[in-house]
Structure formats: C-alpha cells, structure tokens
Input
Amino acid sequence: MAMTQRERLFAFLNNEPVDRTPIWLLFPYHPLGCYADVARLPQYRPVWDLALETAVFLDRRNFGAPLFTPEVVHERQETTENGERVCRETMRYRDLRLVKETRQGPDGTRIKKLLASEEDLDAYLQFPIELDPKALTKALVPQVERWRIEAAEFPRHLGAMMNDVGEPIGALYHSADLEEMAVWSLTAPRKIEALLGRLMERCRVIYRFLLEQDVGDVYFMVGSELASPPLVSRATFQRWIVPYAKELIAMVHAYGKKVIQHYHGQIKEILLDFLEMAPDALHTIEAPPTGNCTHTEAFRIVGDRIGLIGNIQYDQFRALTPEQMDAAVRECLEECKGRRFMLSPTAGPYETEISERVQQNYMQFLRSGWKYGA
Output
C-alpha cells in the first residue's frame, strides 16, 4: 500500500524503509517572508497542484523574540546625500552607539555592517541580551497562537509543520562584516565565544518553550553554514557551531521531534562534525563546482546515520531544458539509489515571477522524481 507524504517523510527521518524516494520542493504551505507566496501566484499554480500529489510539504515557520533588553534603543533614518539614498539603522545602549549604513546610488549599493571593526565588537558585547524567560515567552505566545491556526489548516497527510528558530551564531553573522568576523576567529575568539554563550542561553529558553508547547514536528536549523570553512577554520567551526547545535539537537530529540540541518558550500572537511551534532537529515550536499562533495562521497562518510537531502541546484531550474532536468534528476536518484535520501532543490522559490522554462522545470523535477524514485 502506498505511503502518504507524511509517512514517507518520517520513514526517511527515522531511517526506516520507504515505498519510494520522498521529494521535497521546499515550498511552504503557508506564506513565508523569504519565499514567494507560491500557493497564490498563477505562474506557480500548476507546480503547486502537482506538488500536492507528489511532494512532501514541510511548512516552515519562523519565530521571533527580542534579542536585546528594552534598554537598547533602535532608530532608523532615511535621507538623501550626494545623490544617494542613505538608510542608517542605529542601536544605542547608554553611551554606546552602533550604526549600519546602506547607500544606494548610480554606482550600486554599498553596505557598512553594524559590526565593522573589533571596536564595534567590543561595544556590541556590552549590549544586554534578553535572557528573561518571561519577556521571551511573552513575545512568543501570540506567534504560537497563530501557529496553532496554521497547523490546524495544514493537511497532515502532506508532511509536517517545521520550525526555523535560529542558532547562536545567527545574530553575529547577520550583524558583522564577514571579513572582520573571519579575522576575529584568530584575534578575538574568546570574545566571540563569550557572546555565543549568552546567545545560547536565549536559544535554550526559546527552544524549550516551543518544545514544551508541542509546537512543530521538525526543526530546521540554519546556522552551521554561517561560520565554516573556508570563511573560518574547521577548529573554529568546532567551537562556534558544533557544541551549540549538538545541545539544541539533543534537546529537540528529547521531546520526540526531528531535526534537519541546512548547509550550503564546502562541506566535505566538516561532514564528520555533523555526525557529532547528530541531526536526522542534512540539506544539502553540493558537488563541484558549487560545493566540494558528491553524494557518493558524503554517504561514504556518514553512511545511513544521517539522511541526505538534495540536490538539484536552484539555478538549474532556469538554465536547463526539461529534457536536461529529467536527466539531472535521474542521475541524482541513480547515485543515491538504496540510500537514505530525499530529493530536493538546493534552495527555495524566491521569485514572485518565473519564466515558462522555470515552471516547466519544476513540473519536470516532480514528474521525474516520482518516475525514477519508485
């Protein structure tokens, strides 16, 4: 008897037999800010309808909570200077002031990040992070209420509700000049690790609250790629990523939930570290020239201890003909035949307008995945 998409998903995550290779298109069921609203856009509609028949849906949901205590003041100013549009986002705490500046003009866009020097980092370390469980959960409660409405609307047989909550490294990565961050891994590692320790306290509160509220079946963790080779060394990855992800994954597992970790890029050197973190699945493994690891090489390292998810590059949906897409899917499934594998693109549907070629390739991806994954 054929499995439902949900049964197929959880068999994959539990390392149990599946009736066919599951297919994940990365389309959320409800609107998500970082993706196009695929369910309501006419160009995506034929893809959406076919996905309902053939693909797993992981309804990715974000949850926000204050990063800093109320003493930290946030200001935003937009102006025009020398023919450029300038946006300044300022953070103030007592006599400390940090500024992110974005300039848009005829020559393009220039961004000065919030943390552009070690002096900025030293100031940032003095900003009080919100660690009070009452303040954090107060922000989460209305989001959980909204989540319960969406969970009731989600057709359970399609897959699962999936939480994207964040990891300690996220706040630093999104605030810092990345070249400076790489330098700090050599010149200021203890400062960073002190910051990550405080951010982890906040993460523990948020994760525990959502888990205790039984929110979500799967947790999607997007942090490992934010401080990894070649930006920083493997030793830094093992200090800035591994212990925090390992603890959060263990917490999620203790509540009977599943974890998919997300990673883009040069993964081969650090695949063994994912075994230590112990997610249920890893998205995505990228072969050269985009990454440095084939699925064959990855399975040689992780065996069936982690399910692998991938791997048709997002740009291929624009570049290939449907015939070439069919061949790419067939080749991918042949390489991973008999292994713990779920077929997916490397990234989600970002564009609100897509060409007929992209639409055709999404349809071909689903048809070929269904045909060759039997």
Summary: The first strand starts at residue 57 and ends at 62. The chain has two domains: 5-67+129-372, 73-114. Residues 5-67+129-372 form a domain with the TIM Barrel fold (CATH 3.20.20.210).
